[in-house]
Amino acid sequence: MPGNPLRSLRSRMVREVTDRLTGGGSPAVRAADLGEPWLPPDSPVREVHGDIAMLVGGLRALLLQSLHPVAMQAVSDHSGYRSDPWGRFRRTAAFIGATTYGSVDRAGEQIALVRRIHDRVTGQMPDGTPYRADDPELLMWIHVAEADSFLAANQAFARNPLPASRIDRYLADFARTAEALGVIDPPRTHDQLNRRVAGFRPLLRGSEPSQDAARLLLWDPPISGPARAGYRVLAAGAVATLPAWARSELGLPTVVIMDRVLLRPTARALMVTLDRAFEAEGFGRSAADVRS
């Protein structure tokens, strides 16, 4: 009996998308180990980080983070993102998985690893100003950009968006990981998060490296076949959830009507398709996993 062409195409798309963005497996890599959990089992962090909308949130976070000149310089100097564009995304996915679902020991191992890497990442800006990846303010920006992006993607594309009443709890729980990485007084409420983003705004600007990174992530990703079209829709969803000022700095379209009429609905439809495909391929659905 011949195989189902549609199922074969869907399977290939799921494999390619997850391999590029997470290194394989479900969108949020599970850390199925024993011991005291790093986060409470009922933490809303598990709901947000386990949703397939995190694929959009991760892309948005990278775009937003690139607007900080020091963050972008460090990435350009140390990450090799041009030769390994998916490496940073995969490493972040593994870290998020361990600190969302893992035990205290497992999360602690990942946090210690990241801190050791940060200790070695040093350099100079073009004007000669030195930088360090473990600078608390730089770490704050990375955390703030991630929290803002994960929530934005969740609210726009998750099957069951986190209720407003649980957003502060999400940020308070997520702050535990940020503090362990060296962030001083991370935001614990939505209002604090918004004020932190606004506080960084004067420092954020588009640059040739950040716009190059955006072009690579959005318009010319090293991915082919059926996954390329799906990936581009996810990327469009990331762009649609960025604030207009961020898109302007990155040289991206800022027409809001496109978001409402085209980008968001198209991305949302793809999320439903991927969601069902993940279930069909046995990757599971985190919202169900978290509540079970």
Automatic annotation (TrEMBL):
Matches recorded under InterPro entries: MPAB/Lcp_cat_dom
An annotated Gene Ontology molecular function: oxidoreductase activity
Domain ER-bound oxygenase mpaB/mpaB'/Rubber oxygenase catalytic positions: 47-269
Organism domain of life: Bacteria
Pfam families: MPAB_Lcp_cat
UniProt xrefs under PANTHER family: BLR2777 PROTEIN (PTHR36151), ER-BOUND OXYGENASE MPAB_MPAB'_RUBBER OXYGENASE CATALYTIC DOMAIN-CONTAINING PROTEIN (PTHR36151:SF3)
Protein name: ER-bound oxygenase mpaB/mpaB'/Rubber oxygenase catalytic domain-containing protein
Organism: Microlunatus endophyticus
Lineage summary: Bacteria, Bacillati, Actinomycetota, Actinomycetes, Propionibacteriales
